[in-house]
Write a structure and sequence with these properties.
This protein is an all-alpha fold. It has one domain. The protein contains eleven helices and two strands, in the order ααααααββααααα. It has a two-stranded antiparallel ribbon with strand order 1-2. α1 packs parallel to α8, α5 packs across α6 and α9 crosses α11. The longest helix is centred in the N-terminal third of the chain and has 32 residues. The chain starts with a helix and ends in an 11-residue tail after the last helix.
């Protein structure tokens, strides 16, 4: 199969997956954030933190809650990273330096997820799970609920309240991000992504050298990394690492996870304001920009000059052979369009 044919099939598969997912997910998200029903577990959670689930907030109260939650999250994550050596599953790693811990905490809480360290040689399993993965959920949910608050504000003139930040956060995490991430983690595990608490193993290679093979709870973090448009990888090589992204199929799945919520949100908006045309207009603009960017990036990445590259059919420098040029360009477009930052290749 030629690289161009493979690229087209991958692009069409992604379009099909998104096409069958956007409407039901958008409808579900609208229902989640508009529902007046409060389940038993949900009610107990609100009670434990002293929140009245039926009390709406003003925009100032909503903003104050968001900033307070984010500020506490930064301090919490900073503490985990600094005190790592005293926490479970530290894997023998010391705590981060103050500057690096502060940089990382702010980066992950703000959904920036810029990493100034190598994950497999810096962080233990507890820091990855209780620190970074938790913020992958929380920061993604914070972004979603701000969008939902804005949508509800459009209806404020019709008497609908903006809602409650804590209720929206709970529902974004528990009812949307967590179940989809759980299914994504299972599929990744079934297709080769690792999920264990195995310490780094040292093995002898076929040529007699030594190689250190790290383990860890990778699949569970990989799923929310992509779904929440976070981007910070378990390993330094990010989604180019075979333990995070083992095959062409998992690569397609991760691209799908990157895009499914962003593309479903405009449909949810149209549903919530009872004006599907508005939602479709935004969705159409997003799709147009994404398709144009994908076409341009793919064309540039497939362009190759020189005898060797013509014989090979593509320029594979910086690309993983299990993905190819086209799927790498598609991943790059998806991760950049959603401001995620995850990568599966280097580019020309």
């Amino acid at each position: 199969m030629s690289e161009l044919t493979s690229t087209l099939l991958t692009d069409l598969a992604l379009i099909a997956l998104l096409g069958i997912s956007i409407v039901p997910l958008g409808n579900y998200m609208a229902k989640v954030f508009q529902s007046e029903k409060v389940g038993w577990l949900e009610k107990r959670f609100y009670s434990s933190i002293g929140i009245n689930a039926r009390a709406s907030q003003s925009w100032k109260g909503y903003a104050t809650s968001l900033l307070s939650f984010s500020g506490i999250s930064i301090l919490f994550l900073y503490g985990i990273l600094r005190l790592q050596q005293y926490l479970p599953w530290a894997q023998g790693f010391k705590g981060m330096t103050p500057a690096l811990a502060w940089n990382t905490a702010i980066s992950f809480v703000t959904n920036t997820n810029w990493q100034n360290y190598s994950g497999e040689s810096t962080l233990g399993f507890f820091s990855q799970m209780a620190g970074l993965a938790v913020q992958n959920f929380a920061s993604a949910a914070a972004g979603i609920v701000v969008a939902i608050a804005l949508v509800r504000a459009f209806n404020a003139r019709n008497g609908e309240a903006i809602g409650n930040f804590w209720v929206h956060m709970y529902r974004a995490i528990i009812k949307i991000l967590l179940p989809i991430s759980f299914l994504g983690s299972l599929v990744l595990m079934l297709n080769g992504a690792i999920q264990n608490f195995s310490a780094t193993r040292t093995i002898y290679t076929l040529v007699g050298g030594l190689q250190h093979i790290p383990g860890g709870p990778v699949a569970s973090q990989e799923a929310i990394k992509e779904l929440g448009t976070n981007g910070g990888g378990f390993f330094n090589a990010n989604s180019a690492h075979p333990f995070e992204n083992p095959s062409g199929f998992t690569n397609l799945l991760e691209i799908f996870l990157l895009l499914v919520i962003p593309f479903a949100l405009p449909w949810a908006m149209g549903k919530m304001i009872n004006n599907k045309k508005q939602g479709l207009a935004i969705l159409g603009a997003m799709v147009g920009i994404f398709l144009a960017s994908t076409a341009a990036t793919t064309a540039l990445e497939l362009h190759h000059s020189g005898t060797a590259l013509h014989v090979a059919g593509s320029g594979m420098e910086g690309k993983e052979t299990r993905f190819g040029v086209g799927a790498s360009a598609l991943f790059a477009t998806a991760t950049t369009s959603t401001s995620t930052g995850a990568i599966d290749s280097a580019h020309e």
